[in-house]
Please model this.
Amino acid sequence: MDMDKNERILAEQALRDSEERYRTFVEASMDAIYLESIEGEILDCNEAACEMLGYRKDELIGKSVTDLLPKNKRYLLPEIVDKLMSDGESFIEGENLRKDGTTVPVESRARVIDTPAGKRVVVYVRDISRWKQSEKELIESEKRFRSFMDQLPGAVFLKDSDSRYIYINQFMRKAFNADESWIGKLTSECFPMEEAHSLIRHDRDAFDKNYIIDVQKVVDSGGKERIFQIHKFRISKGESENDMLGGVGLDVTDQLNAEKARVKLEAQIQHTQKLESLGVLAGGIAHDFNNILMAILGYADLALLDTSAGSPVVPSLHEIEKATRNAADLTKQMLAYSGKGTFQIIKLDLNEIIREMTHLLDISISKNAVIKYDLYDGLPTIEADPSQIRQIIMNLVTNASDAMDKTSGVISITTNHMECDSEYLSAAFMNDQLPDGKYVYLEVSDTGNGMDEETLSKLFDPFFTTKSTGRGLGLSAVLGIIRGHRGTVKVYSELGKGTSFKILIPSVEGEPEQTAVSDESEHDVIQKGTLLLVDDESSIRDIGQTMLEKTGYTVITSSDGREALGIFRERHEEIDCVILDLTMPHMDGEETFREMRRIQSDVCVIISSGYNRQDVTRRFTGKGLAGFIQKPYRLSELTAKLKEVID
Model:
C-alpha cells in the first residue's frame, strides 16, 4: 500500500512538473496560444493572447471564438471548422477583434489534439501587424516605382542573365509594340531572329563590360522608324543570386533629325553667303562695266549725230550701239544675279503673263515634251516686273525641257496661292527672313531625269550647267530676280523621277495694272538751262558734257561730291538741275544730295548709276529726288529725263 501511495505521489508530482513546464513554455511564447473546445469555447490562453486583444484572462476564458472575429468575417467560421475537423489542422490569415473594437491582422494555425478530457483544439495566433505594414509599404513603394518608371520619357527594362525580360515600363511597351506577355520571355521570343541575335550579343557584352551603349532601330505603331540609344548596365544582386541586366533606351530620332537639319541649314547658309558674296562682286563689276559702256554708247551716239545719214560708217556705228546694248543686257543679268536688277514693278496677274507666253513656250521646248497648264482661277495679284517674271518662266521651262533629254515627258506649269509660316519659309532655298503671310506661287515641274544631291547643291551657282555648253548665268539670275522681288524658291528633285521648282512671291491687294510702254523717240529739240554733271569717271563727264551741250545746255562738270558741293554753294541760283553719280570717292551721291538740300531745299537732282532703280530710289524715298537714270543711257533718254524733271 505504501508503495502504491508513493508511486501515486511521484506520478502526481511529475504531472505537476509537466504542467508547470507546459505553462512556462506557453506563457513564454510571444504568439497568442488558445486551448479551445471542439465547439469553439476558449478554455485557456496565455498572457500574449490577453495583451494582443486587450482582455484579462478571466474575460477571455469562456468566450466563443466567434466573438474574436469581425462581424463581416464570421460567416467564414463554419467552413474553417469543417476543414479543421477533416484535416486535423488548418492555417488561415485574417483579423481578430480587440476588446476596444479595433482589429488586428493575424496569422492563425490550429490543430486538433487528444487529451484525457477528450478532443481539444490548440490555436497559435501571431500578430502580423508589422509584416502587413511592411507589405503595404512595399506595395506602395512598388507602385511609386512603377509610376515613376512609366512616366520616364524613355524605354526601361530589366533582364536576367539569360536575356529573359523581368520588367518593361510603359514607354517601352508603346515604343517597341510590347505588352505584359514579354515578361518571362526570352529576347529571342520577342524579336526577329537576326535582330534578337544582335541584341543578345550586346547583352552579353554589357554583362562582361558592366556598361555599354547600343543603338537599336524600331518601327513604331505608326509605321515610322525610330532610333533608340540603349544604355545597358550590369546590376549585381550578390553572391547568392544571379546578376541582372538593366537598360534605358532614349529615343534620339528627333535629335538626330535636328542635327541633320542643322548641318543641312549650315551648308545652305554657307552656300547662300557664297552666292551673296558673288552677288556683291557681280553687282560691283556690273556697275563699273556700265560706266565703260556709258562711254562707248555715248560716243557712238555722238558720232551718229555728227554723221550724215548716207555715210558708210553709219551701219558700223549702229553695230557698235547694238553690241553695247548686248553688253548692257549681260550686266543686267549680273545685276539680276546680285538681286539688284532693274525692275519696273507693277501689280500684275501671273496667270495673264503665262497665257501671253504659251505660244512662245510651246516653240521653245523639245519636240518630245508637252506643257500642261493648271492655272488657279482668281489668283491674287503680285507686285513684280513683267519682263523679269517672263525671264523666270522661260528659264525654268527651257531647263525642264533640257531635263527630258531625248525622252518624252510632261512639263507642268501650276499657279496657286498659300499661307506660309516662318517654318515653311525657312526650309526654302533662300528665305532672307521673309514674313509670314499669303504667297502666290509658280511651280514648274518636269518628268525628266532629276538631280542628285551634288547637282542640287550647285544648282544656283553662276554659270553652273549640266549641259555641254552653258547659257550664261541661268538659274543664278533667276535666284537674283526672286530675291529682288522679296520672294523665295523651293526645289524638289529625285533621280529618275523629275524636278520641281516652286517660286513664291508675296501677294498684294488691288487689281493688276497694264504694262507701261516707254517712249524711246529721239528728243532733238534744242534745250536751254545750266546743268551740273558730277561723276568720278572722266570719260562719262566728257561724253556727258559733249552730248548735253549739243542739245543746247550749259554744262558744269565736277569729279567728286566735295568739289560739286563747293560749285553748287557758289552757283546754285543759276543751276537748273544736277546729274549726280551715286558711287564716288570722298563724298558719295547720297551725302552730296543731302548737303545740297541744306543749301537749296528744292534742288533738282537726277541720280545716275549703274545700279537699278529700286535699289537707288529706296534710299531716296521721301527725300525729294527728282529722277533716276540708269547707265548706260542714250542721249535721247537723258534729254527726255531732263525735260521731264525740269518742266
